[in-house]
Write a structure and sequence with these properties.
Length: about 120
C-alpha cells in the first residue's frame, strides 16, 4: 500500500518561505505523478502543483511564480518550495501520488497532511 509522509509545515510570517517534503514508499516513484493540494478551513481541497511522470510541472494560478515543485526520484521525495507566502496560503497541505496525471488527485493516494500557517 502506498504511503506518503509530509513534513515541513509550520508558522511563518507573510512574505516568508517554507519548504514542504513528501516521502513516498511502496510504489515505483518515478512512474507516478506527484502533486500537492491544500485545504483551508471551511473550504474544499484544491490543487496547488503537480510534477508529472515526464518531468513537466503545473501550478495553480494562485501560486504560479511563488511556489516551485520538484522531485528527487532517487529519494522517493517530492518537494514544494513556497516563497512570498500570504495569509491566504494558510491551509493543510497534502501530498498525492497517482499513476496518472491529474490535478484532482482522485486517482491517487493521500498523505496525512501538514499544516501551514501564514500570520504575523
Amino acid at each position: 500500500q502506498v504511503q506518503l509522509v509530509e513534513s515541513g509545515g509550520g508558522l511563518v510570517q507573510p512574505g516568508g518561505s517554507l519548504r514542504l517534503s513528501c516521502v513516498a514508499s511502496a510504489l515505483a516513484f518515478s512512474n507516478y505523478a506527484m502533486s500537492w493540494h491544500r485545504q483551508a478551513p471551511g473550504k474544499e481541497r484544491e490543487f496547488v502543483a503537480l510534477s508529472g511522470i515526464g518531468g513537466g510541472t503545473l501550478y495553480a494560478d494562485s501560486v504560479q511564480g511563488r511556489f516551485t515543485i520538484s522531485r528527487d526520484n532517487a529519494k522517493n521525495t517530492v518537494y514544494l518550495e513556497m516563497n512570498s507566502l500570504k495569509p491566504e496560503d494558510t491551509a493543510v497541505y497534502y501530498c498525492n501520488a497517482a499513476p496518472v496525471q491529474s490535478t484532482s488527485g482522485k486517482f491517487g493516494s493521500w498523505g496525512q497532511g501538514t499544516q501551514v500557517t501564514v500570520s504575523s
